[in-house]
Design a protein that fits this description.
Blueprint lengths: L2 H6 L4 H6 L10 E5 L2 E5 L4 H18 L6 E5 L18 E5 L2 E9 L1 H5 L1 H12 L6 E6 L4 E7 L5 E7 L4 E4 L4 E4 H4 L10
Parallel strand pairs: 5-6
Antiparallel strand pairs: 1-2, 3-4, 4-5, 6-7, 7-8, 9-10
Amino acid sequence: MDTAERAGKVWTASEFLATDQREFGDAWRYELVDDAIIAHAAPSPDHGAILAALTTALGTRLRGRRDGCRVEAGSGAAPRNQQRSTARIPDAMIRCGEYPRVIFEIVSPSELRAWRARNRKRRDEQDVEGVQEIVELYQGEAAAHIYRREDDGKWSFDAIDGLDAVLSLKSIGLEAPLAEIYETVNLEPDA
């Protein structure tokens, strides 16, 4: 499919997620948002280091579990109510069986300024079947915002910060210290 055909095509989430992203262009990653294919720049070195440490910490803790949960990086997730027009690609996720259970986003300083887009992305991710927790890790400081689906279906919010804090993923019974996730990142002294 050439560029002109891609530009005029209306993509479903299923088609988008099944397509080799190199067909969309040379960007690092793409997402489908309201029928539009959105390109994302490559992550910064600190973003990459946090992601690598996160997936290592999670993978080590999930190893040997019999519940079928595994860590993935760069896998797609399509919201139930927007299946035809939206597919998000979180930084990482824990998938248990067929469905994602926990989604991780590493929030860059530029994303902090684009709070409306970040809130929209979180709402899309909250609508992904199976998701019970969304964790936003902040690139510039050892901090995380955790959004959890409660028994009544509503979402609660918790914040942790500092290298002595422990990220607790209640939906899968797993904990990881922020010091381990941020161990290779040079944080500002007051962060």
